[in-house]
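Journal club prep, shared notes

We agreed each person brings one worked example of a sequence with its structure written out as tokens. Mine is Pseudouridine synthase. I'm keeping it raw so we can talk through how to read the token line rather than staring at a rendered picture. Sequence first:
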Amino acid sequence: MHEIIVNDSDSGQRIDRLLAEQLEDTSRSDMQGRIKDALVKVNGKVVKANYKVKSGDIVIVLDRELVEADIVPENLDLDIVHEDDKVAVVNKPKGMVVHPAAGHPSGTLVNGLMYQLDNLSGINGELRPGIVHRIDKDTSGLLMVAKDDVTHRHLVEQLVEKSVTRKYTALVHGTIPHDKGTIEAPIGRNPKERQEMAVIDDGKEAVTHFNVLERYKDFTLVECILDTGRTHQIRVHMKYIGYPLAGDPKYGPRKTIESEGQMLHAGTLGFVHPKTGEYMEFTVPLPDVFEDVLETLTLLTD
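Then the structure, token by token:
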């Protein structure tokens, strides 16, 4: 628990900004989360993040109560691309769920991380230790993993600031005539189908850049670069412009190639190391199942 008495010079500041400045090993987004969860009180009352403090206010900040994760470590032989005392980068295989949930209590990336890594952050709660961001079950590729809460906050801040490099390779239906493009269309829950996301007027900002890598007969291979990280963003955006992902059971056509899920690979990930301040970038090749499909398409196109 932390107690702060607001002085004259800080009067008028937003409470989330003030706390982020005055408390060590935290961030503004973390403070906003604590305020939302009623872990911050001013003069004994819960306030909103935009509350402007007054001289003499007594601010109490409670720490989050971490719950020991009830997860069974499993030796899943994960491909750890990088590991140090603060952060790890893992190459998630296609078909693996990121964290335990209903229907997937084991065999997840988190189960494997619990076995292979010594420490994981606790910020995301009991079932998602270390997980800073996620990719879909049938999307393969790179993820950042935080080993402590301070590192977790720093990595989340970079995601919020849109400074993390995230490049995906995607195979889509149709032949895209132009070599590059940018899709700016807000994404939210589909009001007609709650299990899906869609481009809707009151959705959250979503920006995807794409470059054409190769054209095949009835298909196009593209590189997608994310400015934002909305749920199913690439899958929704490419469908929105008329080029849905191949193999996508949710957003693609029913008749498609056999690929056991969408043809999407998070191949490049770059970020600033929270401890050293060094920019680090990692790239992993396409999985074999993706390469096999491209080889088949090449033969059909030639």
